Amino acid sequence: MNVFGVDIGGSGIKGAPVDLERGDLAQERYKVLTPHPATPEAVADGVAEVVGQFGWSGPVGITFPGVVTGNTIRTAANVDKAWIGVDGARLLADRLGGMPVTVMNDADAAGVAEMSFGAGRGRKGTVILLTFGTGIGSALFVDGRLVPNTELGHLELHGHDAEKRASTKAKEDEDLTWSHWAHRVQKYLAHVEMLFSPELFIIGGGVSRKADKFLPLIEGIQAEMVPAELQNNAGIVGAAMTAGRR
């Protein structure tokens, strides 16, 4: 069975049909740039363009970079604040001509995929997936069960939101070396580990493709650290999985 997945990020909106049996994209994904300002209407147009590229008709799972409760958007750190209070599923379903739409937090979607088909498959105990990109997303699992909307990228670290210091965007904006950035990520992981004592950190987002450049530089973390296996497709897969279940 295939279900369509869309991943809305601070820099891009990407999507593809997903084979739910394999936990992988059924076709090569299509991506458009996230509009600026990233208002609800503008982002909905981008989602419609991605879905329309495949001539899709059917259930669609969509991630959102913020807290989502009962399909309502509660926070919007890296998109326009006009999203707050919006029924995301209704807005996007209307824009997609009435297709069934499920909306969930982007990192939670990535975590769902990794726990079923990737680096967290079969793992018990406390597992935390962190996605490094425009911000830092988080997904917390206890014995395989998701604790939704943790938003650990907004933990305060040295007087700042952690994602302002340790995201991939911070690395790029400040032109940090891998070593300098890894030191910041190490401080962030140590803070998260102090709070939650996970057995496993899964490091996701686009930067997971280059895990060999920074993971070996991180020291003093007791939890096992591994790169996400689905890499930057995890959000698409997890959103489709969740839509398929609903």
UniProtKB/TrEMBL annotation:
InterPro entries: ATPase_NBD, ROK
A Pfam entry, by short name: ROK
Superkingdom of this protein's organism: Bacteria
NCBIfam families cross-referenced by the UniProt entry: PolPhglucPhase (NF045942)
PANTHER family (alphabetical): POLYPHOSPHATE GLUCOKINASE, ROK (REPRESSOR, ORF, KINASE) FAMILY
Family the entry assigns: Belongs to the ROK (NagC/XylR) family.
Record's protein name: ROK family protein
Organism expressing this protein natively: Streptomyces melanogenes
